[in-house]
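Notebook entry, structure prediction.
Reason for the run: the old model in the group folder had no record of what sequence produced it. Starting over properly, with the input documented here first.
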Amino acid sequence: MASPYGNCRKCRGFGFKTKITRRGRVKRGRDCRRCHGHGRRIRIGRWIYNRAARIYRDAHTPAPGTRPGTRSTEGTPRR
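New structure, fully documented this time:
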């Protein structure tokens, strides 16, 4: 099964930049600026799906403070 996430392209999934000390040993560096140390990125298909779902949801949800299925009574005379 495919994952909606892939490895970060900058740090290759490590989450940090590797450093080499003067002795030649590999050491952990600072957290990756692109993925903030998570080592993951959202794949393009998931990014498109999230964007489309957000647009659809915003267009099909009622405005805040209103209940679905009720009519507005503003401007109608009271009996």
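Summary: The radius of gyration is 25 Å.
The old model has been moved to the deprecated folder.
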